[in-house]
Amino acid sequence: MRRRFSMSGTAIMYDTTVVPSKKEIAQAWTGYVDLQGSYRLVDTVDGEVGVEVLISKDREGRLLQIPFSYRSAEINPEQTLSTLEHGVLGKRWVTNALGDPVAVREFIRTILTGDDGAARSDGVKGYLDIKGSGDAESVDLQDVKLTEVTRQRAIGSVTINGERKQFSLRLPQLLKNFRETAAGHTATTLRIVATHPEKDDVELLVAEFNWME
Question: Which residues belong to any copy of the Maltokinase N-terminal cap domain (predicted)?
């Protein structure tokens, strides 16, 4: 049975410990980390995969994204960043979210439907209040296959509403005003944006998406 996706849902939070800490895992992957918070998406199909993007400041005070997914079993050793021991859920595999088909599906869904980030069960607001730019009432996304993965980009294919299509998803590590991205680069129409938490007049480019056919 196929499911229709809509609304971002609620991420279940636990008052417990994780070892090693998320900061330690992020430091091992990216180097210097000054964590500010995070935003989350949820697995809208099975509820099994956690999706969290940590937000850090670099040494110059700029905001950076560090995308994680959390699973009960490893899916791809090449994209595994670490394991951790969760006080409630037990052993979890931490993965580069752009190398996790479920996380990629949820980013695509959020963009295409104009959804926002997941709420948290503990009531704490995400560090970024993200919003997709699409206007689809719902989309049927099936069978994400990834052919190229980096720290900032996932290229692959997905079946959307019964049609197989190629895509490119980019999560820039450095968060910038989407109107002031790199020279010669124009942000795509399909994207996720968020207001800068310290500068109300700055809208950050969080993710951008392209169909490749």
Answer: 33-100
